[in-house]
């Protein structure tokens, strides 16, 4: 297989009603379906943080999904920044 896509890494912060609504598990499923590696975790302030590595196209699709979230979530904001964190294989819930 010829790997021509450049891998990038982004850190996302998702605010709103995003804890207790299966957001992390759903984000993991979505990230895995997009071929991303990284992690997702709840934050003490009620937001969800995710770090994802993969192609620019997959990261854009993931960001679009994060803006909606799973059915019970109510996303009010998503911020994103480039990060240099090294992610291992797979995508995990922390």
- Rg computed from alpha carbons, rounded to a whole number of angstroms: 12 Å
How many distinct helices? 2
- Outline the biggest β-sheet: 5 strands, mixed
Strand content: 35-45%
Distance between the termini: 31 Å
The CATH architecture can be named as 2-Layer Sandwich
Helix content: 25-40%
> How are strands sequenced across the largest beta sheet?
4-1-3-2-5
Q: What is the molecular shape?
A: globular
Domain tally = 1
SSE class = alpha+beta
Low-confidence stretches: none
Can you write the helix and strand succession as a string?
A: EHEEHEE
Report the count of strand segments: 5
Looking at this protein, list some descriptive labels.
94 residues; globular; 5 strands; five-stranded mixed β-sheet; alpha+beta; 26% helix; single chain; Alpha-Beta Plaits
Give a concise summary.
This protein is α+β, with helices and mostly antiparallel strands and 94 residues long.
How would you describe this structure to a colleague?
With 94 residues, the chain is of the alpha+beta class. It has one domain (19-84): Alpha-Beta Plaits (2-Layer Sandwich). Helix content is 26%, strand content 37%. It contains two helices and five strands; from the N terminus they run βαββαββ. The protein has helices at residues 23-33, 56-68; strands at residues 8-17, 37-42, 48-54, 74-82, 91-93. A five-stranded mixed beta sheet has the order 4-1-3-2-5, covered by helices on one side. 28% of the residues are buried.
Write the topology of this structure.
Blueprint: E1 8-17, H1 23-33, E2 37-42, E3 48-54, H2 56-68, E4 74-82, E5 91-93
Parallel strand pairs: 2-5
Antiparallel strand pairs: 1-3, 1-4, 2-3
């Amino acid at each position: 297989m010829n790997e021509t896509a450049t891998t990038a890494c982004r850190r996302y912060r998702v605010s709103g009603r995003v804890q207790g609504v299966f957001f992390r598990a759903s984000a993991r499923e979505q990230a895995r379906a997009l071929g991303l590696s990284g992690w997702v975790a709840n934050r003490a302030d009620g937001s969800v943080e995710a770090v994802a590595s993969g192609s620019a196209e997959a990261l854009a699709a993931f960001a679009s999904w994060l803006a909606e979230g799973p059915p019970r979530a109510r996303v009010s904001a998503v911020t994103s920044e480039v990060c240099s964190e090294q992610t291992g294989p797979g995508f995990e819930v922390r």
